[in-house]
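User: Some background: our group keeps a shared notebook of sequences we're curious about, and every so often someone picks one and asks for a predicted structure to add to the entry. Today it's my turn. The entry only has the sequence so far, pasted here. Could you supply the structure so I can complete it?
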Amino acid sequence: MPFDLVTGSRAGLHALFDASDAEVLRAPGLEALEALAAEGRVLLFADALDGETAWRVHVDEEVDETVLASASGWVRGARLHVPSGVLRAAGVGEVTEERASIPRGDYHVDAFTTDWGDALMEHIRARTGHFARCW
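Assistant: Of course. Here's the predicted structure to add to the notebook entry:
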C-alpha cells in the first residue's frame, strides 16, 4: 500500500534516506550529498521548487500505468540502503521532514514527477491539505 510523505526545501532539493544515517544531514554541501548518493545512502531528487513537496511512496509494488504515463524528470535505478527500517524524507536547506516504517533492506528506486493538471491538483490539495506535487 502506498504512503505519503511531505518535505520542504528552500533549495528545491529533497532527500530520502535511512533515519539512522545522521551523516546525511551533516553533509557539508551538494558534492558530499552526491557522494553519499553514489554509495546508496541517500536518494536526491530535485524539483526546483521552494516550499513543500508531497511524495507518494510505493514499496515492493507496481505503480499504476496511468501514473507512469504522466511521469517525467526520472531518477532511475538508484540504490537506497534502509538498514534501520525507517525511511526519512527531508528537504535540503530546511528541516521539514517526515518518517515512515518500511521493511529493512536495500532498495532499487525509481523517482519521477507527475503533472496531472490543475483540476486534479485542486482535488488532491483539498484531500491532503498539502501543496500537491506527486512523486
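Suggested note for the entry: The domain at 3-128 is CATH 2.60.34 (Substrate Binding Domain Of DNAk; Chain A, domain 1). DSSP finds four helices and eight strands in the chain.
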